[in-house]
Amino acid sequence: MQKKILLLGSGELGKEFVIAAQRIGQKVIAVDSYENAPAMQVAHGFEVINMLDGAALDAIVAKHKPDFIVPEIEAIRTERFYDYEKQGITVVPSAKAANFTMNRKAIRDLATKDLSLRTANYRYATSAEELQKAVAEVGIPCVVKPLMSSSGKGQSTIKTEADIEKAWKYAVEGSRGDVVEVIVEAFVNFNSEITLLTVTQNNGPTLFCPPIGHRQERGDYQESWQPANVTDAAMAEAQDMARKVTEALGGAGLFGVEFFLADEGVYFSELSPRPHDTGMVTLAGTQNFNEFELHLRAILSLSIAEVTLEKAGASAVILASGNSDNPTFSGIEKIAALPKTDFRLFGKPTSRPYRRMGVALVSDVIGTPVEEIVQKSKIAAALINVNK
Ligand SMILES: Nc1ncnc2c1ncn2[C@@H]1O[C@H](COP(=O)(O)OP(=O)(O)OP(=O)(O)O)[C@@H](O)[C@H]1O
Ligand SMILES: [Mg+2]
Question: Where is the ATP-grasp domain (predicted)?
Answer without folding.
Answer: 109-300
